Amino acid sequence: MTERRSLWGHRDFTVFWAGDTVAQFGSQITLLAIPLTAAVTLQVDARAMGVLNALSYLPFLVLTLFAGVWADRSRRRPVMLVSTVCRAIVLAGVPLLYAADLLTIGWLSFAALLAGVFTVLFEVSYQAYLPSLVDREDLLEGNSKLQVSASVAQVAGPALAGWLAGWLSPQDAVLISAIAFAVSATGLGLVRRREEPPERARDRRPVRREIAEGLRFTFGNRVLRACVLEAATYNMFWLVLETVFLLYATRERGMSAGTVGLVLGGGAVGSLVGSLLAKRISERLGVGPTVSLAMVVGCAAPVLVPLAGGPRPLLLALLVLSFFVGGVGTMVANIQVVSLRQTITPNALLGRMNASYRFVSWGVVPVGALLGGWLGGGIGLRPTLFVAAAGLFASALWIVFSPIRAMRELPPAADGPADGVADGVEDGTADEADRAGKADRVDRLGEQDEQNAETVG
């Protein structure tokens, strides 16, 4: 028997990982550079900012469920490659339009919408591609390396975006992100390993039926229902806060783009710290108390944003503290929730549960963006931040008043439909779970890279 080598010696994984790392930074730069372009370069109002953010996330509501089915029925790498190239082209158009004096909030919103479409197509394929690239025994190492890249990008990305926007301009920062996606596409193109086409299921059922089963299972389970409603409430009010915060920070508090990036970077640092503390806290307090306490702390922290004031150093310190504490709390809770979701869901339903979960929890994001813009333009930026803080704190109540609070440890893993939680799922799901269980076990490893992709849950 030959000794298994580390993935450091795996040529195809190495180039894929390098390209993905660059793309992670590109994504983080884009998240801040596009709204900064609207706020600083185009000087838009709160309502226009709300529409921009809503269009950025609209594809997650419209396409996620169907994109997941498409990704399972086709080769994933071509989808990822085309999506990455298209994101680079779309984003490169923003500084070009500005140079030609043609950039408007309409064109910027259209670019954000297209970038969101290609992001959805990439993400659903990306999460399922790794098993085609490395051997099954290397999946844990591969996911770990990819997660490290994502965590580093989340810590450094906002600060880098703010620095680029301040040193150059917000639209030039968008160009940098386009270049990053072009580099990522090059890494994907250099992968040599041939991806086998997916097997065509002999008894493939209609897409609508499979989607409906996932939705019924997710909302028929009291634990999953509490988690997804908390995540949806949190995400909606987080977009209310995010929509007006850039305008509030740059116009009412006189902060530069670089300073805004540093403040938002506090949340990423908090998330990294939370990921390091999550296991230790859970072992001491138990799963349920850890989720409840961390959720309350993380959801209460944003109230410091509208309350922060005083001399400039104190203002900045309070803002950084707010995002940092929020990042720690939500990450500690998020890790427990993801593990809980994985444990109570049968293998054969994990994919559809994840799609249903993301569809609901991210589908409300455009609503939050529009609500933030409407409130910001109607009652003012600072009052809107108080509304957002109240909504974020209220989201924790879904968990506090759920069965999760009483759990001391994770329940036994579900091999078939979880007892008492699959109400409404059609007969035959148990047999399906048994047939698909072995093939779908890799989904538990693949879902690890989602922990930082979702806000909570």
Automatic annotation (TrEMBL):
Cite the record's Acidic residues compositional bias ranges. 448-457
Q: Could you tell me which SUPFAM superfamilies the record lists for this protein?
A: MFS general substrate transporter
Q: Which CDD domains match?
A: MFS_MefA_like
Q: Give the membrane topology.
A: Multi-pass membrane protein
Q: Where in the cell is it found?
A: Cell membrane
Residue spans of biased composition, Basic and acidic residues class: 432-447
- Pinpoint the Major facilitator superfamily (MFS) profile domain residues: 173-457
Tell me the protein's name: MFS transporter
From which organism does this entry originate? Kitasatospora misakiensis
